[in-house]
Design goal:
By secondary structure, this protein is mainly beta. Helices cover 2% and strands 50% of the residues. The strands form 15 sheets. Strands 2, 5, 6, 8, 9 and 10 form a six-stranded mixed beta sheet that branches. Strands 40, 43, 44, 46, 47 and 48 form a six-stranded mixed beta sheet that branches. The protein is globular and about 100 Å long.
Length: 611
């Protein structure tokens, strides 16, 4: 006590003599706390804090109480945020006088899908697979050519990438080649395989060969038949029947000589390999017809999608009952179309068809069509991603009739996968970009859905083998789901712009529109209306929705506002036999015109031109 009194008296004396006495250092005080945020997966997050106190001040950010590495500034920036980074963020501000913890700010990360795992699979018989397919257990079935043109092999790979079994198929003496065309897997894990063989490359006759393997790779049966054409695809139904679709003629011989135009040919085999029936379809004008895809439903009906005639070419979609009677057939003109790449039947009996179109190198475009049980077109979606030429992509259905489309993209060699709801609205899209370890080529992609609703994608690696991607979906019941995405818009200044999206999930739902990731004041409805837009309104618009279960963020739609109208029509004149108009557009932009008589089928009028 005497010591403390002496120190206090000494301090007063020094003050009287005008000698400065060091004051006690002030500990940090938090003036502005970090704020809670809700963002979408892949976005950038910024936290900040304002503190005062005697310098120097140091900072240390924490997540759920654990120290974050290299997070020692007053601000924290997190790029490409992932769901695993959600939680409570806080910061410790410290100086020589003490430490002060900020309040916790909660980061909610909205996500639809994320990459759960990936495996690189080396193929035992060469670099690339000819065909591949998943089943619902996540197994991958791969067919690839054998070295030195002696045949091909079919292998089953487990979900972890291990080879379960492999079966080789060799050409027989006197035959020039044996190639695989298609494979299909039934609910029991049996595999049907279709190949073609011939005595030489210029033969007018080929032998179609069909094999059935059990779930262990043992051969159940094999059969074959002679054809003037070649097989394309195979399908299986729930009873174990096997279907093969091909052409009855190639149209030209191997030496380039003329052959009769081919018809679509469908052959059905029993579960034991007995040939039950064969049906052919020939379009009008004796044009060449070619199937591209085949599917069977739970009732034993079979669906074939093909291409006929041209120009213009026509999409042909037909349904046959279990006895081979044609129930209906629909034809629609789609010029510059490849044979359909896929046909699928959902649990309500609707039919999903995948189309690809050529436009000249370097890319093709793609679309998905949906038909009802009677062959009436319900909708068509044109996909934004483009591929190299003749790269069809792959499609799959889940138990809720959602559609998945996987495609190797041509311009950056990424493999994309997009999910659509049963009405054709995009739900999410994800891309696996090439890196130093892996790059992709444009052929041989497969997509499937396993029993846990994981999305499986297999893509050909440029260095050889397959990259198998496992995507985890956010399937928490009741969480908000955004159906569709904001469209890309280009408008003139002064006009009115509207964005609107449909949202499902537990009620009530809160809405917040954003531009370039920043919330727009007052934009809290499903419909966003902006009147008299200016150049300052340009940006990427997205919608954030939340409810008591979770949250969702739409993809961004780019709005570009320009000072002149992007395009408009002038002097429209319509007579009984023709119409005339003048079109005014921006310079150095490309436009094309299409016309329709029913607002469903559209045909190009006179090509593209620049404004």
């Amino acid at each position: 006590m005497r010591c403390l009194v002496f120190l206090a008296a000494a301090a007063r004396l020094l003050g009287v003599l005008g000698i400065a006495v060091p004051s006690e250092a002030a500990p940090p005080v938090i003036l502005e706390q970090p704020r809670s945020q809700t963002v979408g997966s892949g976005e950038t997050v910024q936290f900040s804090v304002i503190a005062e106190g005697d310098p120097p001040l140091t900072y240390q950010w924490r997540l759920n109480g654990a120290t974050l590495d290299n997070a020692t500034n007053s601000g924290l920036i997190l790029s490409n945020i992932q769901p695993s980074q959600a939680g409570q963020y806080s910061v410790l501000a410290a100086n020589s006088a003490g430490t002060k913890a900020s309040e916790e700010a909660f980061l909610q990360v909205c996500w639809e899908v994320q990459l759960a795992s990936s495996e690189h699979i080396s193929l035992s018989n060469g670099l690339f697979a000819a065909v591949s397919a998943f089943n619902s257990d996540g197994n991958l079935y791969v067919a690839q050519p054998l070295p030195e043109n002696v045949g091909f092999a079919v292998a089953k790979l487990t979900p972890t990438g291990e080879q379960d079994w492999e079966v080789p198929f060799y050409k027989t003496a006197g035959f020039r080649y044996l190639s695989v065309r298609s494979l299909a897997v039934d609910f029991a894990g049996n595999v049907s395989v279709v190949g073609v063989t011939a005595t030489n490359f210029s033969s007018d006759l080929e032998d179609v060969l069909v094999w059935k393997l059990d779930s262990n790779g043992a051969q159940v049966w094999s059969t074959g038949y002679e054809s003037a054409g070649f097989p394309h695809v195979t399908a299986v139904d729930t009873e174990g029947n096997v279907y093969v679709a091909g052409t009855s003629s190639e149209g030209t011989s191997g030496r380039g000589g003329a052959k009769p135009p081919g018809d679509i040919e469908i052959v059905k085999f029993s579960p034991g390999g007995q040939r039950l029936w064969a049906r052919t379809y020939g379009g009008p004008d004796n044009a060449y017809d070619e199937p591209g895809a085949l599917a069977a439903d739970s009732s034993g009906n079979v669906y074939v999608a093909g291409v006929s005639g041209g120009p213009p070419m026509e999409l042909v979609l037909g349904k046959y009952d279990t006895a081979g009677n044609r129930m209906w057939l629909t034809r629609q003109p789609y010029d510059q179309m490849y044979p359909p790449g896929s046909v699928l039947v959902d649990r309500e009996g609707n039919i999903v068809v995948g189309l690809s179109f050529w436009h000249g190198a370097p890319f093709d475009t793609h679309a998905t069509l949906k038909y009802d049980q009677n062959g009436n077109l319900l909708w068509k979606v044109s996909h934004s991603d483009e591929s190299d030429t003749q790269a069809m992509g792959a499609r799959a259905l889940d138990q809720f009739n959602n559609i998945y489309f996987a495609l190797p993209r041509w311009w950056d060699h990424a493999v994309t996968c997009t999910k659509y709801d049963p009405d054709g609205n995009a739900l999410w899209s994800v891309a696996r970009f090439p890196d130093e370890q892996i790059s992709f080529i444009s052929y041989g992609v497969a997509v499937g859905i396993d029993t846990e609703q994981k999305v499986l994608v297999a893509a050909q690696a440029e260095s050889g083998g397959l990259e198998v991607l496992h995507y985890q979906q956010n399937i928490i019941p009741g969480r908000p789901v955004i159906h569709g995405q904001p469209p890309r818009r280009r408008v003139a200044s002064g006009t009115t712009v509207e964005f609107s999206l449909v949202v499902s999930g537990a009620k009530p739902v809160s809405y917040q529109w954003r531009r370039d990731g920043m919330s727009l004041p007052g934009a809290t409805n499903a419909l966003l209306v902006m009147s008299n837009v200016t150049l300052l309104d340009s940006g990427n618009y997205s919608l954030l929705v939340t409810n008591a279960v979770g949250c969702s963020v739409s993809a961004a739609g780019l709005l570009t506002v320009v000072d002149v109208q992007p395009f408009h029509f002038e002097h429209l004149e319509i007579t009984a036999s023709q119409f005339k108009f003048r079109f005014v557009g921006e310079a150095f932009r490309v436009y094309w015109f299409e016309a329709s008589t029913n607002l469903v089928n559209w045909a190009e009028l006179f090509g593209t031109f620049s404004g």
